[in-house]
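Reviewers asked in the last cycle whether our approach scales beyond single polypeptides. To address this, we selected a multi-component target totalling 1184 residues and predicted its structure end to end. The input consisted of the following lines:
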Amino acid sequence: MSDYRYPYQEGVFVLNQLVGLEQICHQAGLDEFAEGLAEAVLDEASKLGSEQLAPLNVTGDRLGATIENNNVIETPGFSNAYQQFCDSGWPSLAGNPEFGGQGLPNVLAVAVNEIWQSANLAWSLCPLLTQGAIEAIETHGNDQLKQHYLPKLISGEWTGTMNLTEPDAGTDLAALKSKAVPEGDHYRISGQKIFITWGDHQMTDNIVHLVLARLPDAPAGVKGISLFVVPKYLLDEQGNPTAQRNDAYAVSLEHKLGIHGSPTCVMSFGDNGGAIGYLVGKENQGLACMFTMMNDARQGVGLQGLAISERAYQHALAYAKERIQGTLRDGSRISIIQHPDVRRMLLQMKSSIQAMRALVYVARAESDYVNNAADETAQLKHQKRNDLLTPIVKGWVTELSQELTYLAVQIHGGMGFIEETGVAQYYRDARILTIYEGTTGIQALDLIGRKTLVDGGVAVSDLLSEMRDDLGAISAPELQDIVTATQAAVEHAEDAKQWVLAQAAQDASAAGSASVSYMMLMGYLCGGWLLTKSAAIAQRDLANEGADLEFLNAKIISARFFAEQMLPRVGALLAAMQSGGDTIMAMSEAQF
Amino acid sequence: MSDYRYPYQEGVFVLNQLVGLEQICHQAGLDEFAEGLAEAVLDEASKLGSEQLAPLNVTGDRLGATIENNNVIETPGFSNAYQQFCDSGWPSLAGNPEFGGQGLPNVLAVAVNEIWQSANLAWSLCPLLTQGAIEAIETHGNDQLKQHYLPKLISGEWTGTMNLTEPDAGTDLAALKSKAVPEGDHYRISGQKIFITWGDHQMTDNIVHLVLARLPDAPAGVKGISLFVVPKYLLDEQGNPTAQRNDAYAVSLEHKLGIHGSPTCVMSFGDNGGAIGYLVGKENQGLACMFTMMNDARQGVGLQGLAISERAYQHALAYAKERIQGTLRDGSRISIIQHPDVRRMLLQMKSSIQAMRALVYVARAESDYVNNAADETAQLKHQKRNDLLTPIVKGWVTELSQELTYLAVQIHGGMGFIEETGVAQYYRDARILTIYEGTTGIQALDLIGRKTLVDGGVAVSDLLSEMRDDLGAISAPELQDIVTATQAAVEHAEDAKQWVLAQAAQDASAAGSASVSYMMLMGYLCGGWLLTKSAAIAQRDLANEGADLEFLNAKIISARFFAEQMLPRVGALLAAMQSGGDTIMAMSEAQF
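The resulting structure, written as structure tokens, was:
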């Protein structure tokens, strides 16, 4: 059994020193909350996470969910935890006050969400998906949809789902076949959806399915997809739920490698005449609505990569301190944390997790800066940065989480392979993160295509400029080795961008071949940049009266480790990218 | 369900072109077998693997083994497959003819073992462990032990186990507590052993446990360990088994992340007065005997890394050819193998697997060259090479197998996470490979310490010289890009060696901190070297009449891919190494 504690000091450092929470609160007219807000909120959330959710993590893995007569029964204990979660007002933290939300910054919510996800990844998927549904309805829904659905979703009284994938339409949404036939003020939806996370459960009175489907006269491909709200129980005219069950059912559950506590449903719509659905946004504009849901969920999944790595780190660290193996020359026995290679693994986890957290929080704060921007220029600037960072957060953080959960198992030696130890669960659970909400390959294509080629590299150039400025401003001689290494990585990224603009623009297979290397390169760079900034802040604060020297020095060591051990990967990724796609495309299908 | 086929053409290429099977057969006085030997043997083994063992792989995963009254019942079907395996004479393939073996080269056995391990990793652990027991008894046992045990172990009539680990003595064997008390011609063994692979089963009449224990007056630490043979059923004076059960029992089975078909036992010796055991080698010399077992098993586990990667590749390749996602501009649908990033993942698997196979077979052939050496100088040379390559085979191949089985899941997208798809099993099964028979960290310490520092880098220098000669001899202009990249990697390795000799010699924490990077660097280098040699052979053979151009060109493409995409990692690993251990050691335990 591992205890989980939110790394409070780390989180507060990122929020206050890197993200600018005070500025965000000020812009949002929340000055009165700024002082001590984060600390108080994180403290409360940490209690719920550690005491209620974390112990249920293993239960979810062992018992999973079950299905009987098309009703999914969630893991025992999950419903009770969900009620406590709602009773304390957590779902509405960053919700729109117009619909009952508390209107606190998104970046504060992301820190709080880290707690739920570290504590219990499978359980936390339910509120995560609900958030995607909220975003879609809030951004694209008409007033009636907003009035009927948002208050209940924001309060957590109802949960939401995202119904995109079909057996022959996964990444390729153009191929989806579910149908929506107009009927008065609504539509009749039919079709089968797979991989629907928390598609059914008994924790709430209603579930709001967001469903992609195709109108009878819709154009082929992604231009003919529309998005619908399909509630599990129909509402009356006042928006109150009735006892009338909609024609939308979970018909089976998947048997998965991990996240057993999260019911992954096959959903069947319209087996008995058609499920009643309400259009979100305009007909055939479903893709844009879907991206609203998806972009939010993508950053959310990046956060999961951070959260599960943190949980795995805490587990591995506790073991490394307690497990005795080896003897010093004087005959005294030592714990494995004293072995250099174990320290290397722990530091790889610790420094990478700090880099991930910095990037995830900084990226999420961009949405707050967008919401509170003083003018359109500022808004556009932050929107572009948000869009640029999203595929890096999803792609890089989740890929790195594979390596880190792997190391957590490795630190345990043979015990890591035994399920009762518990660390293997993080390794299994993490495996979905590079797949759902768009695979790593899809994130990488998004980054190299829509986020780099389409704007001629401007957003990337802006980011690199900011990095150069930040690094150039660091004068502490103690940190020059770290600064120099990070500056070298910036220039590698400059070369990467130039290569993308010159080569990938004309050659789709070069772009496709290089895309994942490009995305990983940008991820390590962002991590290195934010850790170097953190080290500079820590170095500056060392002189403060009452400074926590242990903590600040550890931040500098982490940044140095990352620069020494992780940033060299940037050069290797650049070389791989620059090889282009010729070799990759040269092999015929038969030659594989 | 995936079908498995041994990659026959690849295997034969490595055996005939890289390993020098003909020369090995000639040296061993097996000229009459050389012509067509490998082909015929592999053909037969492939049938048994594909038809009998491969279908039982999923059964082992789902049903596992069970335990009742201290008797382990293996997965249904495993025993029948084992009987067929023995009836066809497979266990004795490379066995010593003095004890009923067929005396064929070890390198041929390694190719055959690849088949068993690809087909069914969990099942194949039983013969793998038996091989370790054979080596220990053959090298260190007295004549009576050899006469009593070797014929039955070599024929497969009995199986063997390795009983090393105890709850407080994993990597740290110095801490082991099991006792052996002399009693006439034998010893009474008592103690508990954990993680005992195939510690009990019903497939054979007897099981021969090799057990490390400590004599009453033994020195402390590893100098006080002795090795014993402890049969499940005692033998009479002629060496025939009796019905008398020895006091050695499996008392429980572990619940593991993978290899469910392989029973991992807690073994209890001496609960009823002491198990009867027979000394192997001399008292207190057990560590040397253990290393004899272990070195053999380490190369065997490296082979498992190759084998499971090959199986995962075949699964992913079949899916990539058959899964339709995406549409060309002309409206035609395409399978995902046409997407550049999917091709990248497949080529990463394919080229890495070729590199692994080349290294594993080449390393194993060294033991044949040792056995058949014309003089002591030649023998010593090959023994040194064998010793140098062993930690690279175990460490690098198994680490790389993690990445490759990961990619196999990734290629399947969401389906990869569903257990019924089958590919997740390879990912779970592979996870043990970097842990058992010495973790990656232990392999790396062996390489940097015993295999580099202890001989002043001579064995490494010899290997690098051979690489330089091989690469310098490649004149084909078509391959110069690959040759240049590989030569650069050789010089990086030269720098790495120099760094190890200069820095790590004086500073144990620098050695420990850099060791895994050093081992991985050497692995990629060996892979690149052997693939470049393969490309040169393929290029030469393109002009042969009747040459298989598709196959030979594919080998060149694989080598180029490896040089372009994988070899850049060598530079990154060198940089990580050269950072040394100061940062890694700087963090106090409390700061983690």
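The radius of gyration of chain A is 24 Å. We regard this as preliminary and will revisit it once experimental data from Aim 1 are available.
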